[in-house]
Amino acid sequence: MNFFDAIGSAALGSRLRRLNDLMTSQAAEVYALYQVPFEPRWFPVFYTVASEPGRHVGDIAERIGQTHAAVSQVVKDLAKHQLVKVQRGKTDQRRSVVTLTEKGAALWPALQQQTADVQQATEALLAETRHNLWLALEETEYALSRQSLAGRVKAIRNQRMTNEVQLLAYEPAYQSDFKRLNIEWIERYFRVEEADLKALDYPEEYILDKGGYILLAQHHGQIVGACALLKMDASTYELAKMAVSPTAQGLGIGFQLGQAAIAQARALGAQRLYLESNTKLKPAINLYHKLGFQKTVADQPSPYERCNIQMELLLQP
């Protein structure tokens, strides 16, 4: 079994490079057949200059889908072989206009005939295959323009890693993790306040015994996320002490915890969820909006000096 059979579609890029190498080497044989002194990699640029004279390098790059630097290098090579010339534009001196030289113009008819023959041969080649590679390439390029390969891989990786996250109900053994995670983010942006320490040092007394609830997120055996529901009254709970370890960012843990907390609040009979935060914490604010929270104004001031925004989520019965 060769490499491509073993790896499969994960090696698509390498397989395309191999095909490109094969096509390029055989294209060189075609130019030799027509006795045209030409390098295959010049063709897109030369063809564009010959068929649409007066274009500048940026236009050519956009037209053929190559980088400005790559096109500039090819233009330099063509100029070195006296096939094109580069001049300053008449209307815009900052742009260099590329045109054919006499030598390039003399080569153009033979290259046109060669191109017509190559197109006929290529169409016959594609007709021999069950899948039309040209159409497949168009579809693939379109799909990649909609979402890059890196973006697709990231989504799959994140989903796999998200599936590895377990949500756990609080137990006394997790108190140190609950405190560690919250102290970590508070000290990064603000200062730890007395109200923080009460809930973090004594979660049973200040959260659970008062009808609240604590959730933790575990990933590969490590507690990497936490959040709490603090009972405010018979129908309202506060979403608080939301924390995710920096080592676990990007796994969607905050969203999982938030969704689980909302579900738990409903199970506890809540009709409203309330939270306090700071607009400096933009990822957290974005998360709360994603979960459905909207800005509100609290009836009473926050016990935390760092709080400058209150939000709420009204739960449907």
Automatic annotation (TrEMBL):
<dbReference type="InterPro" id="IPR016181">
    <property type="entry name" value="Acyl_CoA_acyltransferase"/>
</dbReference>
<feature type="domain" description="N-acetyltransferase">
    <location>
        <begin position="176"/>
        <end position="316"/>
    </location>
</feature>
<dbReference type="Pfam" id="PF00583">
    <property type="entry name" value="Acetyltransf_1"/>
</dbReference>
<feature type="domain" description="HTH marR-type">
    <location>
        <begin position="9"/>
        <end position="158"/>
    </location>
</feature>
<dbReference type="InterPro" id="IPR000835">
    <property type="entry name" value="HTH_MarR-typ"/>
</dbReference>
<keyword id="KW-0808">Transferase</keyword>
<dbReference type="InterPro" id="IPR000182">
    <property type="entry name" value="GNAT_dom"/>
</dbReference>
<keyword id="KW-0012">Acyltransferase</keyword>
<dbReference type="Pfam" id="PF12802">
    <property type="entry name" value="MarR_2"/>
</dbReference>
<dbReference type="InterPro" id="IPR036388">
    <property type="entry name" value="WH-like_DNA-bd_sf"/>
</dbReference>
<protein>
    <submittedName>
        <fullName>Bifunctional helix-turn-helix transcriptional regulator/GNAT family N-acetyltransferase</fullName>
    </submittedName>
</protein>
<dbReference type="InterPro" id="IPR050832">
    <property type="entry name" value="Bact_Acetyltransf"/>
</dbReference>
<dbReference type="InterPro" id="IPR036390">
    <property type="entry name" value="WH_DNA-bd_sf"/>
</dbReference>
